[in-house]
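Page 37, continued from 36.
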């Protein structure tokens, strides 16, 4: 280990060719180059977030294993990711974070939850015809309104185009809503006014045309929504409870928004949190095992004495368990800091090439500059020494704690 460290220090003082002495120029570039500053910022995020979350989760899991049945199986499941290499974990989470909900587990879960609580069905691209005779008009804010005001007891037609017939081929045939027999109600139909292969009468419901189900319809008067409903499978709707007067029947813009397909986990905004999530999945079980070992050494007399004195479980945990576990928690935290400072595999595998600059960390930048196309071992050696300087203080701290505990 000594020779590579000494040679890296020596090599960091020269340029990319290794022939021209540049002194501390490579080190100065670390703090002036925007790409390298991004890697330092990302490493700071890693150091602040990942070790803390891993330690806290490890503590929670360790405490839970003392209070549940099948504790051994619980520990085994949580520790199992440690048996997977970081390379394999990166491949797994590259698939987990796929944008397509049919492929990516994360977005499959998000879209399922979203669709469970969102009843409206989107028809992106749908619009009314653009002519003076069209019964409905598209507004600048994305809404669609009926051309003429409607009154209770009337039925309105809202024909839409812009959707491929195959996109609604499984929909029910559209049905023209009859005028409501009683007062206080406006009826109508929203349908795709297109016949596959041509034909049909424009602005009229034909037998071959499909109703648009799940579209939100509103009755608006004086700028306020007075009634809201959704279209049935055949495209019909009924706005009830309306007093006498004129109303604008409109379809909100949300009806025409693209369906929710989850988050762009592998995009520039979320790539670093996504990779940190993969790291936590791997290392939370490791932290749990170490903390559980420390928890087993906590004197039970102190815990029982506190309970006898009337302390709640939260007070026992906060005032006795955590202080007695402080040395173990500190060791776990510092060990995680050392690990995240030199994280490489997960970032290299999970981050697509297009967003790797936004997810970059010091260890990956060191490899990219030296061997990943940069071919600048001078700068790469400077990054390696910079990383060593960051890691060494935490290593010394850990070693001193180990020695103090042995004494």
């Amino acid at each position: 280990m000594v020779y590579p460290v000494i040679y890296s220090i020596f090599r960091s003082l020269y340029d990319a060719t290794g022939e021209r002495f540049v002194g501390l120029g490579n080190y100065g570039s670390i703090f002036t180059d925007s790409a390298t500053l991004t890697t330092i910022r990302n490493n700071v995020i890693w150091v602040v977030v990942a070790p803390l979350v891993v330690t806290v989760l490890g503590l929670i899991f360790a405490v839970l294993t003392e209070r549940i049945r099948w504790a051994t199986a619980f520990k085994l499941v949580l520790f199992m990711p440690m048996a997977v290499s970081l390379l394999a974990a990166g491949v797994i989470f590259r698939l987990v974070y796929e944008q397509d909900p049919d492929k990516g587990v994360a977005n499959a879960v998000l879209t399922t939850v979203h669709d469970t609580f969102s009843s409206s069905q989107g028809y992106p691209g749908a619009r009314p015809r653009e002519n003076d005779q069209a019964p409905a008009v598209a507004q600048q804010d994305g809404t669609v309104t009926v051309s003429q005001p409607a009154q209770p007891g009337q039925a309105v037609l809202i024909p839409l185009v812009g959707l491929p017939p195959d996109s609604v081929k499984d929909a029910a045939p559209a049905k023209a809503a009859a005028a409501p027999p009683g007062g206080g109600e406006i009826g109508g139909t929203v349908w795709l006014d297109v016949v596959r292969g041509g034909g049909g009468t424009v602005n009229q419901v034909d037998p071959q045309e499909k109703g648009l189900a799940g579209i939100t319809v509103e009755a608006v008067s004086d700028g306020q929504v007075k009634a809201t409903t959704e279209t049935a499978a055949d495209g019909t709707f009924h706005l009830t409870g309306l007093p006498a007067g004129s109303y604008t029947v409109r379809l909100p813009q949300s009806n025409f928004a693209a369906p929710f397909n989850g988050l762009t986990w592998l995009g520039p905004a979320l790539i670093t949190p996504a990779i940190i999530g993969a790291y936590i999945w791997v290392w939370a079980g490791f932290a749990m095992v170490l903390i559980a070992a420390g928890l087993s050494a906590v004197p039970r007399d102190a815990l029982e004495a506190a309970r006898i004195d009337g302390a709640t479980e939260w007070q026992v945990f906060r005032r006795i368990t955590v202080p007695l576990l402080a040395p173990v928690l500190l060791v776990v935290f510092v060990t995680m800091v050392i690990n995240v400072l030199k994280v490489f595999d997960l970032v290299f595998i999970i981050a697509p090439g297009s967003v790797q600059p936004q997810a970059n960390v010091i260890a990956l930048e060191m490899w990219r500059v030296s061997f990943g196309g940069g071919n600048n071992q001078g700068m790469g050696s400077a990054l390696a020494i910079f990383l060593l300087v960051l890691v060494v203080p935490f290593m010394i701290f850990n070693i001193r704690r180990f020695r103090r505990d042995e004494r």
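The chain is about 45% helix and 10% strand. Flag for discussion at group meeting. The chain has two domains: 33-110+267-375, 136-256.
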